[in-house]
Amino acid sequence: DDVKLLLRVTDCGREQPFLISHLVRIGMLSINLQPIYEGLAQHRWSDAQLMDLEQILAKQDYLVDFKFAMRGEKIIAIDTIEKQRVTREMKFGDDSAGTNKIVITSLRWAPSAFFYGTELAFAQMHQQFIVPLVDLTNRVVAPAALRQVQAAIQSQMKHYSYYKVQAQMVFPAIASSVKRFAIIQAQLDLARVACALERYRLAYGQYPETLDALAPQFIGKLPHDIINGQPLHYRRTDDPPSPGSGA
Q1: Average pLDDT, rounded, for the chain
Q2: Cis ω on the peptide bond leading into residue 111 (within 30° of 0)?
């Protein structure tokens, strides 16, 4: 019940269109997976509990959440620039002196084209470089795609443009976040497979020779490696001694 409650709390921020909210969720889920693995290692979970946990985890999809968070970041960025266009002011917090004061920079003489061009740069950055980092059709997050995008941005930075300055400044932080979404999705997938493996052991007294034996009885569909799209690697080893066996 405690684990299920923690998973529900983690999922509460799923509909918030802010990248930071999803990064917090990722950190919370990493913690929440720990007791699941401890129970698996100690053979403490029943078949019903394992089935329940696997079904809860199966509802999570951090690759979809990445796309959602990125759309939110794009909208927030464009909305921020639009407010600057209307007010002709740029506000930011300055805590360098420990005062946490708000600094206002006047943009009174900036032409409207500057703001519209900056908004367009943010939209293009997300559409052309950020969104393609996650292939939802094949459920793959390829490191090669990230390297290509980073190289493309570096190439653009060689040709200075006032309109693209702000977008290029935030790109590294936004682009690097895809790694965290990929890692947590991989951890989530592995936890589901681990639950299915333990259910198989409870039913047959040993682990299967291959992962294919798990579906569809113990898991609806086996996840694949989201980095290369290939099947997960698996091999059976000698079962370690049970806790308290004295072996």
Answers
A1: 90
A2: no
